[in-house]
Amino acid sequence: MDPSDARRILEEERARGRALIGRAGSIEELDRTKTGVLGRKAPVSEVQRTIGSLPEDERRELGRLTNEVLAELRAEVENRRAELEGGADAELLSADAVDVTLSGRRPRPGSFHPLTLVEDRMVDVFTRMGYRVAEGPEIEDEWHNFEALNIPPDHPARTMKDSLYVDVPGMLLRTETSAVQIRTMQSQAPPVYVVAPGRTYRRDTPDATHGTVFHQVEGLAVDEGISFADLRGTLEAFARELFGTNTRVRMTPDYFPFVEPGCQVAVSCFVCDGAGCRVCGNGWIELLGAGMVHPKVLENCGYDSERYTGFAFGIGIERVAMVRYGVNDLRLFVEGDVRFLEQFEGVA
Ligand code: 2NL
User: Fold this and answer.
1) Which of helix, strand or coil describes residue 171?
2) What is the CA radius of gyration of the chain?
3) Any ligand 1 atom below 6 A from CB of 312
4) How many angstroms separate the alpha carbon of residue 204 from the centre of ligand 1?
5) For the whole model, what pTM was predicted?
6) Which of 3, 78, 276, 322 lies at a CB distance of 3.0 to 4.6 Å from 327, suitable for a disulfide?
7) Measured in angstroms, how far is the CA atom of residue 335 from the centroid of ligand 1?
């Protein structure tokens, strides 16, 4: 190779190498550039290989120049590498950056089930009147569920048609929460003021107005001198708390084996105030059954029915939730469809 060609190549490579190294946008690109500029097949390396065959003075001068270009390009590569590594760090840092000034992502609050809302409100009214809350098993024996409540063995409610029996003889899913109150009376002397909220079961084919599972709040007051007037006063106070101060209460005779006398209780409609509308039909909303506790029920629990009297009532929670929230199908309460449930978000 001619010495002047070699000199020209070295200067060209110095300029080309610096430009390429400066332009490398990543560590990978820089490594490829380094191979192209300083590798075995690079023009500088070819010049280096021909130096040995040159005359002494040319050899010394070109050797010095080659080393200078090599050293310069190697230094440039390392500078650029340091720049890119710093840049990679900065890029990582900015990708991982957290803007602490942004407001947080608020979790959705969820909601109470409408039956829970209604049950809580009803229980709250009674606890403020001085009642205690009692709970009991959902699988009951026939004595607590029927016998103690004066429901005789041949009563239609006891047949397999209406009740759900379990695989243990004489045991069934409770058909009302009354058994909880029977257990309360068995375990303590009067006076008793309790409400028993909870799940109950019937053998029914589910449709818009019948379900297998439904909920009740039952109430029981037993004391000396309790009269039907106390029942009426208590239910009026309850209805006004739940539906507003204008609410009136209507009691009509009805029969339940565990009370005497017994009645059906309706409240004046909270939408039309008794005039008649789409919610109530004729102005009244039938809400619950009630009555004076049958003396036999008191005696079954070991209470002296000559000394003590009491009243009891049973309210269906589904029924109240349907009129209150305008729900037209019972099945909505058990299907768990979020489009139904999320409508109660924020309701307390
Ligand atoms: C209804 C009717 C009622 C009772 C429940 C009761 C409980 C005891 C003693 C006497 Cl321990 N009675 N409970 C009384 C009358 C009616 O429920 O239609 N409920 C949805």
Assistant:
1) strand
2) 45
3) yes
4) 20
5) 0.71
6) 322
7) 28
